[in-house]
Amino acid sequence: MECALYVVATPIGNLRDISLRALDVLASAGAVAAEDTRNTLHLLNHYGLAANRLLALHRHNERDAAEKIVALLAQGLPVAMVSDAGTPAISDPGALVVEAVRAAGHRVIPVPGANAAVAALSASGLPAPHFLFYGFLPGKPSARRRELQALAALPYTLVFYEAPHRILECVSDLREIFGGERQIALARELTKMFEHIHRCALAEATDWLNSDPDNRRGEFVLLVSGETARHEELAEETARILALLLKELPLKQAVHLAAEISGAGKNELYRRALEIKGRE
């Protein structure tokens, strides 16, 4: 086994959702860095694997853990890094470790596997040739709404993770900022016994969540259809104004003035301005 840091994806629920390669790596690694050593011990025991030098790696000790992992690699010991579920460094600790290992000149090898966002997308029925994985939104309402405002005009399916205790207020903010007509898929407890994927208009989502306490239980993946109306072609006159302004002014100023003159959205004007500049 090559001496490297192996970033190993683990099951998001069903313990059979693990690759043969991941099991080989976990069996052979000199150490396993785990977000919660108790959860990882359960996984290792389930497959009859020895707990090879389990090392705690979580948000509160990631920098210290990174130093220990670099030291182990320097000794020639390969290290496997896992989170509680899914892939490390994706809405979970691990990015700082990868950065430190690379900076020290060691190789980082991904071992892919189960992914909650992709699983939810595949079963949602939402047309998603393009999607934006956002992960967890801020817990504070003001910060969450501010970030949703910045995402509102994007034409991509938006993918969020959310905890059960915030699901109602998060969905309420989504409806308020995105409008009630956009589609949402609420995927909960993916790959587990009580897996459920419900799709509806945002206007109906809160009523569905409140219709049964079980609908609010478990970890959620939320998928919201992208904006379409704001990304229709700009009116011919608005496009002409923007093109003229870009000939005389910096891009940011031209977009601002075009928005003031036409009333068109700045996000769409900015996108069109980049297209115009790209053709010059």
Could you describe the 3D structure shown?
By secondary structure, this protein is of the alpha/beta class. It has three domains: 5-111, 3-Layer(aba) Sandwich (Cobalt-precorrin-4 Transmethylase, domain 1); 116-230, 2-Layer Sandwich (Methyltransferase, Cobalt-precorrin-4 Transmethylase, Domain 2), CATH 3.30.950; 233-279. It is built from eleven helices and ten strands. Strands 3-2-4-1-5 form a five-stranded parallel sheet, sandwiched between helices. α3 packs parallel to α4. The relative contact order is 0.11.
Task: Fill in the keyword field for this structure.
five-stranded parallel beta sheet, 280 residues, 3 domains, alpha/beta, Methyltransferase, Cobalt-precorrin-4 Transmethylase, Domain 2, five-stranded mixed beta sheet, Cobalt-precorrin-4 Transmethylase, domain 1, 17% strand
Q: How many separate domains make up the residues?
A: 3
Number of strands: 10
The N- and C-terminal alpha carbons lie at a distance of: 52 Å
Mean pLDDT, all residues? 92
> What is the H/E string?
EHEHEHEHEHEHEHEEHEHHH
Low-pLDDT parts are none
The largest β sheet comes out as: 5 strands, parallel
Shape: globular
CATH names the topology of the largest domain as Methyltransferase, Cobalt-precorrin-4 Transmethylase, Domain 2
Residues in helix, %: 40-55%
Separate helix tally: 11
Superfamily at the CATH H level of the largest domain? Tetrapyrrole methylase, C-terminal domain
Find the structural class using helix and strand composition.
alpha/beta
Strand order of the largest sheet: 3-2-4-1-5
Architecture of the largest domain, according to CATH? 2-Layer Sandwich
β-strand percent reads 15-25%
Radius of gyration: 23 Å
Report the CATH C-level class of the largest domain. Alpha Beta
